[in-house]
């Protein structure tokens, strides 16, 4: 196939995509129509849709781990629907339009990749990441924001899920030199926090137990940040692994599963671990 043929195929595909996108815009507007729209869709807000955005994101991640292309495609569609609904709500509230969302994204893509859209030069992975980070930081330095580092972070994370908030805290403060030097350093801190949690549990002080548990969790999230691991994805993978093992325990225990002792479960757990290990090796 010639380069000209490939160009024409790509062009036709892009035109089909634009037509499909026009239909999607029209369909979402129909869903939100004040007279004939869906009753459930009409009462939704940015805030009320948050649980569904979390759910769709989790299902998309699951599809990636399952390596199921059809499911990945479907879940991406569900995520796109969330973008479309939020954009329509923004339009209804006179906050922003879908066009603003797209324009802002295009501007961000072009602005943060000058070596592609401006200079047309090849750069290393490390340099591209540094350029992206530098430009992002310069975009965020606005005069109306409080000068205090901690106040700025508080403003950014106040409505975010706590795990994402912790990640942002860690990423910001390390720019100012407040960072971990090694995993050994983090493990020392983790051990310290676990010991303090144990003491709090002994004291039976519910408030202190909650505080110390938060410290342990915060340190673990710092470890995931240092190792560049997404904690949500890691936990999802562990959830699946646990249920895979438990299904083997169910198979061996059968109808007597409720009659198993803790010792029986430990024995069956080891069997399940070995069985899955052989299966995956």
Could you give the topology of this structure?
Blueprint: H1 3-31, H2 39-42, H3 50-66, H4 69-92, H5 98-111, H6 114-117, H7 125-140, H8 149-157, H9 162-174, H10 183-203, H11 206-226, H12 231-253, H13 262-280
3D architecture notes:
- The protein is mostly helical.
- Among the domains are: 75 residues, MazG-like (Helix Hairpins, Orthogonal Bundle); 43 residues, no CATH class.
- α9 crosses α11.
- Helix content is 76%, strand content 0%.
- It is globular.
End-to-end Cα distance, whole Å, is 41 Å
- CATH superfamily placement of one domain: MazG-like
Tally of DSSP helical segments: 13
Oligomer: single chain
- What CATH first level of one domain would be assigned? Mainly Alpha
Instruction: Tell how many strands the DSSP assignment holds.
Output: 0
Using the CA coordinates, give the radius of gyration: 25 Å
Strand content: under 5%
In a few lines, what is going on in this structure?
With 281 residues, this protein is mostly helical. The protein is built from 13 helices and no strands. Among the domains are: 22-96, Helix Hairpins, CATH 1.10.287; 238-280, no CATH class.
Keywords:
mainly alpha, Helix Hairpins, globular, 281 residues
